[in-house]
Amino acid sequence: MEKVSIKNMVCNRCVMVVAQHVEKLNIGLQQVTLGELTFKHHITTAQKKQVTHTLMSLGFEVIDDEKTKIVERIKHIIIDLVHHQEKEVNSNLSAILSTDLNCAYSYLSGIFSEITGNTIQKYYIAQKIERAKELLDYDELTLSEIADRLNYSSVAYLSNQFKKVAGLAPSAYKQHRRGKRTALDKL
Q1: What value does the CA radius of gyration of the chain take, rounded to a whole number of Å?
Q2: Does the pLDDT at position 78 exceed 70?
Q3: Are residues 8 and 40 in the same domain?
Q4: Residue 29 contacts by C-beta under 8 Å, 6 or more apart in sequence?
Q5: CATH code, domain with 42
Q6: Residue 167 in 3-state DSSP?
């Protein structure tokens, strides 16, 4: 079994598109998850070049550097937590990352900051605000329900973070900026 790490995968549609294209190569693809391909057996250098070329044509990139792999894994865990899980998260982010990646949070935090120039916490908040924008665009939930869904202790706390990150209050966003969200891979 061999794994290949991929940069810029941010959603289930990315997984589907990558799976469709890499399966066409007929080199024993076993599974595709956010940021990772798993093959049934070791792939040759020529096969890896095929995979790399296919991914690049789709706007993705193979990651060979170990630190970058860790950063991408952190990003995928956060994206999954914020955008793809409807249940409430009962642990804090540092505990989740430490457990999932089997590393001390201080080590993960240092690598993340070194590679991205940003902190894990700031990235997490940016993802939460993008999710809040998405939920505001849907116009199906109240701000209180959005705050609850995103595990904010209060609407005021969500509103304050929203204003710091987005530059305007949620109500102003809803009126003036609907639909103008940042792509997840650009955060």
Answers
A1: 18
A2: yes
A3: yes
A4: 19, 22, 23, 37, 38, 39, 40
A5: 3.30.70.100
A6: coil
What are the structure tokens assigned to 86, written together?
């409807």
Listed as own residue / partner, the contacts of 21-30 with beta carbons closer than 8 Å and 24 or more positions apart are: 21/54, 21/55, 21/57, 21/58, 22/51, 22/54, 22/55, 25/50, 25/51, 25/54, 27/51, 30/1
DSSP E strands, the chain: 2-7, 29-33, 36-39, 61-63
Residues 6+ apart with CB under 8 A from 23: 29
pLDDT, tens digit, 9 for 90 and up, residues 53-75: 999 999 999 998 999 999 999 99
CA 19 vs. chain centroid, Å, equals 18
Q: How many angstroms separate the CA atoms of 137 and 139, rounded?
A: 5
What CATH number does the domain containing 162 carry? 1.10.10.60
pTM for the whole structure = 0.78
pLDDT at site 138 = 86
Same domain, 20 and 51: yes
* 56 and 29 both lie in a single domain: yes
What range does the domain containing 79 cover?
66-118
Q: What is the pLDDT of residues 116-152, one digit of tens each?
A: 999 999 999 999 999 999 999 888 899 999 999 998 9
Q: How many domains would you assign to the chain?
A: 3
